[in-house]
């Protein structure tokens, strides 16, 4: 168990022991990843913060359940948060269903000088958000977990083989959606003097 | 997969949370902390009451069919005196249900006052 896990456990024990104010440290430690995960699902900054707030409250109400489990706090936290985000998107509906004409045009011109790297990444993430949920969830979590199939499978409580199959299909759908628009422009070859 | 898509998806989105995000979460946590937990429905007491009621009605019906008077005369009379015995059974069932509901409400009130 590394120091970070030790610290999480220590904080949770304090909260469960009645020191509610200690929960603030957990929020400080984990709010950025949880907002980032929510944002990957919904592609809306304000909504991502609302979803992350709900996730923290949800975690606070269920801290005792983690204490009885043998997995790192962060793994349990991401599983709880991801399940909550997915159910919120099911209930309230996704923010995006299509990329939109403006996004299509921007993707169509990757060499456009004003189009920053982050902007292009955002457009690709928006394309992921428009995929059917079972492919969207796998792609979102796979890249959030730095391409770990094992962690993605654990978060979604699905077998690794299923994750690999959905990744394959999801990527194919994504490529079809984005087509050739994200091909890297070739660097000009300098003529020898 | 297109390596460009893979590379772009691997990028962490740059989001700067609202400066008061942590405060807002803690406000909700404190509100939750000070909110008394909801009073659970007293299913055990309800079950005891319901089983007792059903048992009483069952006994009444069994005794009625045997012609015995082991149950209070008034109830037996009520069950047998009506031309259609079904009405008596229905009335007894409603009375039993009301009694159970009254007991449950009373117990819930007591729990609230605690």
Describe the structure.
Chain A has helices at residues 3-16, 23-42, 45-61, 63-67, 73-92, 101-107, 117-129, 133-144, 149-156, 160-178. Chain A is mainly α and 193 residues long. In chain A, helix 9 (149-156) crosses helix 10. Chain A is globular and about 55 Å long. Chain B is mostly helical. Chain B has a domain at 43-113. Helix content of chain B is 74%, strand content 0%. In chain B, helix 3 runs antiparallel to helix 5 and helix 4 (73-81) packs across helix 5 (85-113). The radius of gyration of chain B is 30 Å and the shape is elongated. The termini of chain B are far apart. The A-B interface holds A 20-21, 23-24, 27-28, 31-32, 35-36, 39-40, 45, 48-49, 52-53, 56-57, 60-61, 117-118, 120-122, 124-125, 128, 139, 143, 146-147, 171, 174-175, 178, 182-184 and B 1-2, 4-5, 8-15, 17-18, 21-22, 24-26, 28-30, 32-33.
Task: List its traits.
heterodimer; A: 193 residues; mainly alpha; 10 helices; 70% helix; B: 114 residues; 5 helices; 0% strand
Protein structure class of chain B = mainly alpha
Low-confidence stretches of chain A: 184-191
Radius of gyration of chain A, rounded? 20 Å
Looking at the chains present, what oligomeric state does this protein adopt? Answer: heterodimer
Helix run count of chain A: 10
Question: Major beta sheet of chain B, specifics?
Answer: none
What is the residue-mean pLDDT of chain B, rounded to a whole number? 78
Give the strand tally of chain B.
0
Span from first to last CA of chain B?
Answer: 64 Å
Order of helices and strands of chain A: HHHHHHHHHH
Low-confidence stretches of chain B: none
**Beta-strand fraction estimate of chain B:** under 5%
Characterize the overall form of chain A: globular
Please render the helix and strand layout as text.
The complex is a heterodimer of chains A (193) and B (114).
Chain A: H1 3-16, H2 23-42, H3 45-61, H4 63-67, H5 73-92, H6 101-107, H7 117-129, H8 133-144, H9 149-156, H10 160-178
Chain B: H1 3-10, H2 21-34, H3 43-66, H4 73-81, H5 85-113
């Amino acid at each position: 168990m590394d120091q970070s896990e030790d610290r999480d456990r220590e904080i949770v024990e304090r909260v469960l022991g009645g020191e509610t104010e200690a929960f603030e440290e957990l929020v400080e430690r984990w709010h950025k990843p949880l907002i980032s995960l929510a944002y990957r699902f919904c592609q809306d900054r304000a909504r991502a913060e609302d979803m992350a707030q709900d996730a923290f409250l949800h975690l606070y109400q269920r801290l005792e359940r983690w204490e009885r489990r043998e997995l790192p706090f962060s793994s349990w936290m991401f599983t709880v948060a991801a399940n909550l985000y997915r159910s919120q998107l099911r209930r309230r509906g996704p923010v995006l269903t299509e990329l939109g004409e403006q996004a299509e045009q921007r993707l169509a011109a990757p060499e456009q000088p004003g189009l920053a790297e982050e902007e292009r990444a955002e457009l690709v993430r928006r394309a992921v958000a428009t995929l059917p949920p079972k492919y969207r969830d796998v792609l979102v979590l796979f890249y959030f977990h730095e391409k770990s199939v094992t962690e993605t499978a654990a978060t979604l409580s699905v077998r690794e083989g299923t994750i690999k199959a959905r990744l394959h299909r999801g990527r194919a759908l994504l490529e079809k959606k984005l087509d050739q628009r994200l091909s890297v422009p070739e660097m000009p070859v300098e003529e020898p003097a | 997969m297109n390596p460009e898509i893979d590379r772009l998806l691997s990028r962490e989105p740059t989001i700067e949370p609202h400066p008061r995000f942590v405060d807002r979460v803690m406000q909700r946590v404190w509100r939750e902390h000070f909110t008394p937990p909801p009073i659970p429905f007293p299913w055990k007491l309800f079950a005891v009451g319901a089983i007792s009621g059903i048992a009483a009605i069952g006994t009444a019906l069994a005794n009625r069919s045997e012609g015995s008077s082991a149950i209070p005369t008034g109830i037996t009379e009520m069950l047998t005196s009506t031309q259609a015995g079904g009405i008596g059974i229905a009335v007894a069932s409603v009375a039993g249900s009301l009694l159970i509901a009254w007991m449950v409400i009373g117990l819930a009130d007591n729990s609230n006052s605690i």
